[in-house]
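Notebook, p. 212. Picked up where the previous page left off. The plan for this session was modest: take the two constructs that came back from the sequencing core last week, fold each one, and keep the raw output in the notebook itself so nobody has to go hunting through shared drives later. Recording the first one now, exactly as returned: residue sequence, then the structure token string.
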Amino acid sequence: MKILGVETSCDECAAAVVEDGQKVLSSVVATQIPWHEPWNGVVPEIASRMHTEWITGVVKEALSRAGLSPENLDGVAATARPGLLGSLLVGLSFSKSFAWARRLPFLAVDHMLAHLYAPRLDAGKNAEGPAGAPPVAYPFLGLLVSGGHTIICRADDFDRVTVLGATIDDAVGEAFDKVAKHYAFGYPGGAVIDRLADGGDSEAFRFPLPNLHKGEHRYDVSYSGLKTAVINQLEQFRVKTRGTDEAADIAASFRKTAVEILLRPLFRAAEDTGLSTIVAGGGVAANSLLRSRLAARRDLRCVFPPPEFCGDNGAMIAGLGFQYLSRGETSSLTVTASARVAGFKRRYP
């Protein structure tokens, strides 16, 4: 069964064809980074406009690389939530029309669930696992980290996910972008800080960790305090004299604290649930320190998608869509987009 997947939740215009929910026949991701770089962040109006201009060509390229015509497809899946509303509507509207015109089953999916599904694509090709490794078995802990979301969850099936913890304010990816923008490190912030931090001293600054002591927040995270400390109160947290590369020291110290904020509640969740497998997804899952810290835990199996499937992509959408379709489920063509999902962000206290 061959499924076309379309993803336009933010600034990546992506399409892919996946066979039987696993074999990636093609994956095309058109990045908008050059259009957003002058503003050091995603401009929603520009993002939706670029999707409108690119979506037809991106889908045609995905079909061409797969060596298929629309008549060879068995279904179409598209991201319906969460994300930038204008961007979501472009991909969703295109995909519904594409499916309707060809009388194909249509699936509207949650792209955060798709991130958890990504390691199941092309099983055996995981960067963190040996060749021929089986797909990740349920249940497992999920760590979803991106510019818009920071979520710790328990996954019991591809569509049965319980949110254990989430951010009460900013997402981790947003914090990376805002710090990079303030210090003019470059864009996108996550990748730039990760590279810059490798040459810095992570002990140059001792930034504060959040203390979520009120209510049921054992697995929640917060990044507003760290962002404020790095941008507005830098000298208060300096513990070493100015080094030869001040920018690298800031980046390294920030990265270390940002990753620690994630790992503290994640490891608590692993201890409390007894689950020893962790699946990470989202753009921040490509962070080298996060990967190395998780790999150092020999008592845990930490699974990352290949780097090309960490960020937003159409293959994970198609793979997830196959699972619904193989169960006999389809979506109504009246379904619409939703910018947010209840439970993906917490209130404090």
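Okay, moving on. Second construct, recorded in the same format:
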Amino acid sequence: MVQRFDVGARLSEMAIHNGVVYLAGQIPEDPKLGIEGQTREVLQAIDRLLARAGTDKSKLLMVQIFMVDLADFEGMNRVWDAWVVPGHTPPRATVQANLASPKWRIEVVATAAV
């Protein structure tokens, strides 16, 4: 069985199947913020979705980070390092990419165990 959450015409925010939760790409709510603020907002959104799924960031299986400018890498990592659970850091990829809105500096896709 597949459970879908916040289903829209184009995408669902989250799906759960066989004990794994898949999140859609999470973007910042306030695009006026710098990279640290945008990263903080995105990670908070991930926390909220994982809680709805009955899990948390200590059970992350994989994270993919898309950034407009890799010059923001250090600032993003400062927020990331404060957020992740020591001893439970997930596999991660960080790539430079054009995002759907030029106002976003970051988008994060995450998968976690329930």
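Notes on construct two before I forget. The chain is about 25% helix and 30% strand.
Flagging for discussion at group meeting.
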